[in-house]
Amino acid sequence: MTDGSAGGHRRTVPAGAAKPPSRVRMSAGQRREQLISIGRQIFAEKGFDATSIEEVASRAKVSKPVVYEHFGGKEGLYAVVVDREVRALLDRITTALTAGHPHELLEQAALALLTYIEEETSGFRVLVRESPLMSATGNFSSVMNDVGHQVEHILGAEFSSRGYDPKLAELYSQALVGMVALTGRWWLEVRKPRKETVAAHLVNLAWNGLSHLEAKPELITRRRG
After folding, report:
1. 223 compared with 212, residue with greater pLDDT
2. What predicted TM-score, i.e. pTM, was given to this entire model?
3. Which residues, in sequence order, are bridge partners of residue 3?
4. So what's the pLDDT on residue 137?
5. How confident is the model at residue 51 (pLDDT cuts 50, 70, 90)?
6. d(CA 184, CA 189)
7. 157-168, pLDDT tens digit by residue?
8. Does residue 191 contact residue 115 with C-beta atoms inside 8 Å?
9. Is residue 10 over pLDDT 80?
10. pLDDT at 18 over 70
11. Is 29 helix (H, G, I), strand (E, B) or coil?
12. What domains, with CATH codes, occur in the chain?
């Protein structure tokens, strides 16, 4: 096969030569998912303030207006990313709570959180990077508060059966969830020991502490006074 060119010269095109691959155009839904995935990664790496629409667009190989068209701006993209992570984490923990015994339920909750940290590291980093733009319903604190309410129901029944004030179950649940969450942030960086060991020790501290609660504890310094 020949091909005409300027000046009357002709060049030969090899038979069966492959054509350059055409660029596959994404659907609107596919593009949106791509931008969410890229935004999630950058927010995890840099945090909200240091992330720019320019970088999101650059990594996605699109123009900035495409990002604005889907999310309205950086705040909109961030809100979608955080909302997805919040629901993913809560779904994991809710699904994990299957055993009837409080001790096992605490183990399941602790292990579910550590597994999320291990498998969805970028998502966890997004959640723990608090943003001044987010309200009280879209950050890590609010997620842990929701988890705390689930644990509160576990402890409330246990407190009642043991003669403790069930009104204090909320305080103890927040303390337990906070302990696991902060330990999880530490474990995210060191990754030692393995998550099952970390969960076992967390529950060991929590459960044995709960097993020997004083009905009306007082500060030692106050007792001396």
Report:
1. 212
2. 0.74
3. 11
4. 46
5. very high
6. 9
7. 778 877 788 888
8. no
9. no
10. no
11. helix
12. 82-214 (1.10.357.10)
In whole angstroms, give the CA distance from residue 46 to residue 124: 13
| CB 108 within 8 Å of CB 97 | yes
Distance CA 21, CA 99 (A): 54
The region, left, alpha or beta by phi > 0 then psi within -120 to 50, assigned to residue 163 is left
Beta bridge pairs of residue 10? 4
Q: Where are the alpha helices (DSSP H) in the chain?
A: 28-50, 53-60, 64-71, 74-96, 102-119, 121-128, 140-162, 169-190, 195-211, 220-224
C-alpha span between 113 and 55 (Å, rounded): 31
pLDDT tens for each residue of 88-116: 888 888 888 887 787 888 889 889 989 99
Task: Quote the pLDDT of residue 52.
Answer: 96
Using CB atoms within 10 Å of the CB of residue 141, give its burial: 0 to 12 exposed, 13 to 18 middle, 19+ buried: middle
Q: What is the dihedral angle through the alpha carbons of 180, 109, 42, 130, rounded to the nearest 10 degrees?
A: -50
Question: Is residue 40 pLDDT above 90, yes or no?
Answer: yes
Q: What is the CA radius of gyration of the chain?
A: 27
121 neighbors 131 (Cβ within 8 angstroms): no
| Closest among 70, 60, 59 to 29, alpha carbons compared | 70
| Residue with more model confidence, 222 or 108 | 108
Token pair for 6 = 């300027």
Tokens of residue 19, six digits: 């054509």
